[in-house]
Amino acid sequence: MAKAKPGPQVARLVRAAKAAAAKAYAPYSGFRVGAAIWTDRGLFTGANVENASYGLTNCAERTAIFAAAAAGARRLECVVVYTPTPGATAPCGACRQVIFEFGPEARVVSCCDGKERIDTSIQALLPGAFGPADLE
Ligand code: THU
């Protein structure tokens, strides 16, 4: 299963996600999110980028994944999400779909400033997902 895979060093990704959250552009919600991902092209990070139109807001996870894809990455192994909150935050539905596109077996870890840590997989977060294989 995804959890047992070697490669991604989660502690390193947690540090990177925390650093990325400092770059969040969140003037409307004030909710800062950082993401760090491990891909076939290495580590990428992202933060949430909000917009005055609200609906065009991009979550930290998708910012990181789109940066990786635009740099040529095609395989996503691990996603770490950090929020400076007492509890951990799971990726939204849109981000789950985008994670599945590149990492159908990806490990997904959510961490925060409290003790809670969610360590799961995209398969658990998005069961029965629609994905690239459905278009073959
Ligand atoms: N957000 C993320 O960046 N990732 C998540 O997993 C949940 C939500 C952002 C979007 C928006 O800028 C703010 O958090 C509040 O929803």
Describe the protein in words:
- The protein is of the alpha+beta class and 136 residues long.
- The protein has one domain (8-126): Cytidine Deaminase, domain 2.
- The protein has 4 helices and 5 strands, in the order αββαβαββα.
- It has helices at residues 10-21, 60-70, 93-102, 122-125, and strands spanning 34-39, 42-47, 76-83, 107-112, 118-121.
- A 5-stranded mixed β-sheet has the order 2-1-3-4-5.
- Strand 3 (76-83), helix 3 (93-102) and strand 4 (107-112) form a beta-alpha-beta unit.
- The model has no long low-confidence stretch (mean pLDDT 95).
- The structure holds tetrahydrodeoxyuridine (THU).
- Residues 26, 29, 31, 33, 48, 50, 57, 59-61, 81, 89, 91-92, 95 line the site of tetrahydrodeoxyuridine.
Number of helices: 4
- Average pLDDT, rounded to a whole number, is 95
The first-level CATH class name: Alpha Beta
The rounded distance between the terminal residues' Cα atoms is: 24 Å
Shape: globular
* Total beta strands: 5
Sheet of most strands: 5 strands, mixed
Instruction: Assign the structural class, choosing from mainly alpha, mainly beta, alpha/beta, alpha+beta, or little secondary structure.
Output: alpha+beta
CATH superfamily: Cytidine Deaminase, domain 2
The order of strands across the largest sheet is: 2-1-3-4-5
The CATH topology name reads Cytidine Deaminase, domain 2
Q: From N to C, what is the helix and strand string?
A: HEEHEHEEH
Strand content: 15-25%
> Number of folding domains?
1
Rg, Cα atoms, Å? 14 Å
Ligands, deduplicated: tetrahydrodeoxyuridine
